[in-house]
Amino acid sequence: MKKIILSLLIFYSAKALTLDEAIDTALKNNKELSSYRQQIETAKLQLQADKSLYFPTLYANVSEKIYAKTPMTGIPNFPVSFKQSNKEYLSFNVGFNQPIYTGGFTESKIEVSKYNLKASEYLYKEKENQLKADVIKAYIDVFITSSLVEVYKKELQAVESIYKQAEGFFQAGLITKVDVLQSKVRLAEVKRNLQEAQGNYKIALSRLSQLLGEEIKDENFQPVNIEVKDLPDLDTLVETAYKNRKILDFYRESINQAEKIADIEKSAFFPKVFVQGDYIYTNQSPYLYPKGNFLLTVGASIEFQGKLPYYKVLQAKSNAQKIRYDLQDTKEKIKLEIKTAYENYITAKENYKVALESLDYAKEYFEMVKQQYENQLATNTDLLNAESSLTRAMESKEINYYNLIKSYIDIKKAIGEDLR
Question: Which H or E element spans position 340?
Fold first, then answer.
């Protein structure tokens, strides 16, 4: 199929809102996206915090202690005692603790934060593209409803002309009062349809305003050009979606994250090796020299509560499996989404083709009946029916015209293409 260039040329103003500006405004104002952006910032800070686990822990302590009575040490069988500790004394120490081996805890903790950051970024991209699709379709809906308003305005002019002509024929005694009343009823119907179309246009504006997060005024849009290209087969579209969709990447990173959390829990079963250095000062004992001294410690420790780490590992693995199921379920939903969008696209393309043909026939039929009516070869009913057919054909053309664009946007969104 040749490329179809669909130009949405409805109305324009010097300070018109462009589609790109509408998308930028929505991305800026949308509170859900702002929340996801903040989630990314939080994940970045968490990663930086976890990287600090490689650095030593620094600490310092100082205390002043006062006994109620001075501690004394006596010698058995001798009436002699000496001061064990000063009644008041100062204690101070400063030092560091450097982990040497953590059983994989530190490395796994950092990997978890990296996967969490990637997952947050992928989720943001998925939501961002969804919002873009919603804005584009809402923007197009404004043009759809505006087009229908213009269709009914033209119909109103046509029916008013028929009504005036019918009154003239009635005055000339060429038609009956019934024909005039029939034209008047049709005129009322068109006015009602026009009011309904104007109401739908206002609703479309409200929907776009809601997505953009600010009030959008009437007649403030710039026309856009959307190119509808040929599409590959359905299987290719599905494969493309599996590669491009960020929600799938989000689940993949979440699986990696859950598996690393299991490694964190496993680290409880391994000893923790550390080096610790201290400078200690105290004047507690009058006989202790020197008062200040350096101390180097190399040690190992292991601590866990019963089978708690074991069940924590199982819990993390179970969560990873749950996310795998979520990933497969999401793939199936995406596949269905693509199939639905693809069928809608094929239908919309055929409907638009038929609508164009029907519009040509309706125009030709209306002009023929109009000429016959002027020559008194067709009735007022024939003319009104021809006018109604023309209006329905114009309405169908506009609706199918925009539905084709919207179905194409749905496919691009479904396969994960950036919509701008």
Answer: helix 308-374
